[in-house]
Amino acid sequence: MRRRILLGLLSASALTLALPPLPALAARAADQDRAFLAGMARSHALPRCEALATATARYADQLDRFAAAPTAAGLEEARAAHRAVTDAWAAVQHLRLGPLTLELRSDRISFWPERAGVVQRQIGQILRDHDAKLLQPGALARQSAAVQGLTMLERLLFDEGVTVDSFTGDDAKRFRGALAAAAARNLATIATDARDGWKALVASLATGEPTILGPTPSEAVSTLFASAITAMQIIVDQKLTGPLGGGLAEAKPTTVEALRSGRALRNITLNLEGLRALMLGENGGPGFAVLLPANEDGATAKQAIDESFASAISAVNAISGPLNAAVSDPARRKSVESALRSVKAARVEMLGTMAPLLDITIGFNELDGD
Amino acid sequence: MTPNRRTVLHLLGGGLLAAVAGPTRAATANGAPLYLNAYATAGASPAYGVAALDAAGNLRFTTAAPGRAHGIVPRPSRAEAVVFARRPGRWFLPVSLDDGTPGTVVAAPEDRRFTGHGAYSADGRVLYVAEDDVPGETGSIGLYDAADGYRRVGALPTHGLGPHEIVALDGGAVLAVANGGVITHPDTGRAKLNLDAMDSSLTYVEAASGRLLDQVRLPERHANLGIRHLAPLADGGVAFGVQDERPIGETQPLVGAHRPGGGAVRLFETPEDVLVRLDGYIGSVASDGRLVAASSPKGGLIGLWDGESGAWRGATALPDGCGVAPCDDGFAITSGLGVMERIAASADAPVLERRTPAFRWDNHLTRWQG
User: Fold this and answer.
1) Residue A154 pLDDT grade (very low, low, confident, very high; cuts 50, 70, 90)
2) CA quadruple A28, A33, A39, A43: dihedral positive or negative?
3) How far apart are CA B139 and CA B157, in angstroms?
4) A-chain residues within 8 Å CB-CB of B1?
5) How far apart are CA A30 and CA A19, in angstroms?
6) Banded model confidence at residue B7, pLDDT cuts 50, 70, 90
7) What angle do CA A165, A264, A88 make, to 5 degrees?
8) What gap in Å lies between CA B110 and CA B142, rounded to an integer?
């Protein structure tokens, strides 16, 4: 019994009896919404999730080989594969609604922001115990999200002082490599499941039937847009404002995402590129912009989104990284603050310019629950 | 037949007016009631504060707050209320209910964050404030002496994680606490740090001693739901509303009740199609003692249940509606789009449908009978 999918199973009479009518969502036509959703899933969500599934599978293969015969070159290759997975993850992180939400997949792929000390403690415990049962297929999937995905893998591969020697020698060291391989395999399973989820959605969205994205196409469009706004807010609040802190003395450099592999800024860039693609379309498929009215206002809004995202992306790229160093450096903080303003400005365009033209009312209370 | 907000209560049968005399009604009645709601002004750079509306939805006063506010609790036997910051909150603000004059802002201790709700002792002397003990990663209730400028005089444990709403029961002798079960940290703002291991509970704490009187959790299959909002019931227990922190793709009950010493929680019955619309999210719960109203701003829907039997009574639509408070002839409700309406107890009740477009009403509506 899926939430939202169940609507289809109910009789029409039960529905009209129990529920007041939905608020009118004026201008957009149902078939337009349906076509956008199915097209977006096919051209945007699915290829991006496919890329994540591919990258994670490669990473798992790489780590299998490395764990069996650790070499310095093998460690570098594994690290490169880790970075490729991080890129693919950052490229889908904005798809908060849908298959990545289910079964806590997002948290299991990357457990961030972290609860101070908890991840370190849990991983430390696992490495001390080196219990072979944890390496069996499916075993990690039942553990805390903190020790399932990129969060643990980053520590195993990139922690300070980690070299090929950390994986070579006694049981405990060999366990480190085997654990990394098991974690990457688990990651690949999660990514494959999410990809399959989107694959199934492409078909259901095309028919307009209730899906996990919403009971109707128009509600799915609204909720998807709201989740994109939330993704922007996460960049603003968690990825930039948090590390910046209230001032130089209160900077929190260790709260940046992907600290150890140094991917914080690149992740933000990829998040923004993903969101821009969701707004404007990619791979010949539609973005939210296709739902804009075909008039001057629509064209202006599309241009404003395009330009504000371009500014935000170049402002992030202009930061001399890594981000944890930049927020702690009086000279470089200004560039981070400037990027923060640009990302906020792009969010304002989404909320203030695009949403009204799409006939999407972003509620005050529904957006960021409490 | 579709119930609407004018007639929805009428359909339930007679006797409801008499039932509207629950614990939320203040002892004194020498004036007209006020409806208190935190607000943001509409527009790109909102100002925050608290507003008082009369029963007809006219603005009586507005008071600026240091930031976005959340819950409001009137002080018994006084024309005063305290407004709490939205979580992670660093302040609360006493406000005169005669004219909205603000008192002195009270700051949270460095190692605490307010969660947005609180309750008074029956004599109005002690203010109990729900808070996170940050280093202890546990729930706490701060004690403030209202007669001494809200000086902090101590703290009690909530015996749970991530408390959100507190209500006073049994004349203030018992504090019921909705422990949402989710850990957050000031360094990472509103990010949820333990979703894979969340542990929500409803606890009853003896106000005089901090002793745990009773504690209950949802059944294991609903461990992904966090109990966050409460309303006192006539039987000495509470109604509660939950939020789905970790969607599992199935519909689940979102509203229930429990009485201290009463064993397991009672989960209210809700039509499947309504659960689909409520979208795993209850933002506010109110009761007149017998009827329970719970809002889902995400679903734009407010549902009604019989508090005693848990039977479903109907729903009314209010886009982005979240604030709910009992009123003389039903429930008053508010929305993030600046709307105040009434779910009327009888078809004869005057229609209230008031929009104040300059204001976006935040999560909670509180009635005060001066």
Assistant:
1) very high
2) positive
3) 6
4) 17
5) 20
6) very low
7) 80
8) 13
CB-defined contacts A:B, below 8 A: 157
Rg of chain B over all Cα atoms, to the nearest angstrom: 19
A117 versus A122: which is more confidently predicted? A122
Per-residue pLDDT, A27: 60
Contact B51, B345 (CB under 8 A): no
Q: What residues of A are in contact with residue B360 (Cβ under 8 Å)?
A: 364
For A200-246, write each residue's pLDDT tens digit: 999 999 999 999 998 899 989 999 999 999 999 999 999 999 999 99
Round to whole Å and give the CA distance between A78 and A80: 5
pLDDT of residue A85: 98
Per CB-CB distance under 8 Å, the chain A contacts of B195 are 104, 107, 145
Q: Which residues contact B147 (CB under 8 A, 6 or more apart)?
A: B125
* Cβ-based neighbour number of residue A118 at 10 Å: 18
DSSP 3-state of A212: coil
Nearest 10 degrees: CA dihedral of B63, B42, A268, A122?
50
Classified as helix, coil or strand, B214 is strand
Pairwise CA distance, residues A169 & A166, whole Å = 8
Token pair listed for B330: 């039903």
Query: Rounded CA gap, B277 and B299, in Å?
Result: 5
Instruction: Write the pLDDT tens digit of every residue in B125-174.
Output: 999 999 999 999 999 999 999 999 999 999 999 999 999 999 999 999 99
Chain A residue with CA closest to B303: the answer is A19
ipTM: 0.79
User: Which residue from B minimizes the CA distance to A105?
Assistant: B246
Note the pLDDT of residue B159. 98
Q: Given this model, what pLDDT does residue A16 score?
A: 34
A-chain residue closest to B228, CA distance:
A370
The two tokens of residue A114 are 């972290």
Mean pLDDT of A27-34: 86
**How many other CB atoms are found less than 10 A from the CB of residue A310?**
14
CA dist B335 and B330 (Å) reads 17
DSSP H helical ranges for chain A: 12-18, 30-40, 46-68, 72-90, 105-109, 118-129, 150-158, 171-207, 217-234, 242-244, 264-280, 296-317, 323-327, 330-348, 355-357, 364-367
Q: For residues A366 and B298, is the Cβ–Cβ distance under 8 A? A: yes
Tokens, residue B323: 């604030």
Q: For residues A150-166, b (16+ Cβ closer than 10 Å) or e, as one string?
A: bbbbbbbbbeeebeeeb
Choose among B306, B278, B293, B370: nearest CA to B334: B293
pLDDT tens digit string along B291-328? Answer: 999 999 998 999 999 999 999 999 999 999 999 999 98
- Per-residue confidence at A368, pLDDT binned at 50, 70, 90? low
First to last CA, chain A: 26
Main-chain dihedrals φ then ψ at residue A368, nearest 5 degrees: -140, 85
Q: Write the DSSP symbol of residue B43.
A: S
- The C-alpha atoms of residue A150 and residue B122 are separated, in whole angstroms, by 51
Peptide bond into B260 cis (omega under 30): no
How many angstroms separate the CA atoms of B45 and B339, rounded? Answer: 20
- Tell me if chain A has a CB within 8 Å of the CB of B322: yes
State the residue for tokens 């009978």: B369
Q: Which amino acid is at B240?
A: F
By percentage, how much of chain A surpasses pLDDT 90?
Answer: 84
Q: Is the Cβ–Cβ distance between A274 and A94 less than 8 Å?
A: yes
> DSSP code of A113?
S
State how far the Cα of A36 lies from the Cα of A44, in Å rounded to an integer: 11
- What does the alpha-carbon distance between residue B293 and residue B315 come to, in Å, rounded to a whole number? 9
Mean pLDDT, residues A294-323: 97
